[in-house]
Amino acid sequence: MIGVYDYTVILTYLSTISGVVGIIVTMTGIGHPYCGTLFLMLSGLLDGFDGKVARTKKDRTEMEKEFGIQIDSLSDLICFGVLPASIGIAQLRVSGILTDLGRNAERPDHYSMILLLISIAAFYVLAALIRLAYFNATTDERAEEAKIKGKAYFTGLPVTTAALIFPLTLVIHWFTRADLTIFYFWLMFIVAILFVGNFKVPKPNKKQFAVIIFIGFIELVGTLLILFYE
């Protein structure tokens, strides 16, 4: 078989499976959008450690390294690009907004709202795609720059931050009982702009990374409580 199947990519594969299942669950109506959020956070957790696991193998070939880069980006597009957009569309369905708009679709203002929300979701996925493709194309250039200047930062907002941003929105939505569905879409629009923005974001050190994991854990617990009591 073609491909790489050792332990260096197993977390990436599991993250991809989690993302695909999350999309299926949210878009088919099998489960509540919060189920999709659970899979989004799981993908984020797996993605947070896949690179560290891959780097433990010191004898990787150049092909294996390149394969790891490409498969990680493709996985990120599914998990942190398509899945959050799917959760947004599913949230529209559950909240009843999409149904209400559909009943009045013949009215220009309602038709425009449907088109706008769908366009925001599509734009979000496109921005994630552009970001991932750009950094794949400039991998060597950025690695050389890092060696020379010793820089430790991201340019623009990493797509993996979606695993922290969007679950927090839905947790707040549940606890406050405020309808944040439309806010979710505007947040997607802002995050999409940040994906392709040309600004510097410092990379987290070990302590900061631990804080990020802790925040993710709190969100995970909150989501599980929501699923249990919903």
Task: Summarize the structure in words.
This protein has one domain: Up-down Bundle (Four Helix Bundle (Hemerythrin (Met), subunit A)), CATH 1.20.120. 77% of the residues lie in helices and 3% in strands. It is built from 9 helices and 2 strands; from the N terminus they run ααααααβααβα. It comes from Pseudobutyrivibrio xylanivorans DSM 14809. Keywords: Membrane, Transferase, Transmembrane, Transmembrane helix. One of its GO terms (molecular function) is phosphotransferase activity, for other substituted phosphate groups. This is CDP-diacylglycerol---serine O-phosphatidyltransferase.
Which properties best describe this structure?
mainly alpha, 230 residues, Four Helix Bundle (Hemerythrin (Met), subunit A), 77% helix
Whole-number average pLDDT?
84
Number of helices: 9
Low-confidence stretches: none
By oligomeric state, this entry counts as: single chain
CATH-derived architecture = Up-down Bundle
Task: Provide a compact summary of the structure.
The protein has helices spanning 10-28, 33-54, 62-95, 97-103, 108-137, 139-149, 162-176, 181-195, 206-229, and strands at residues 153-155, 200-202.
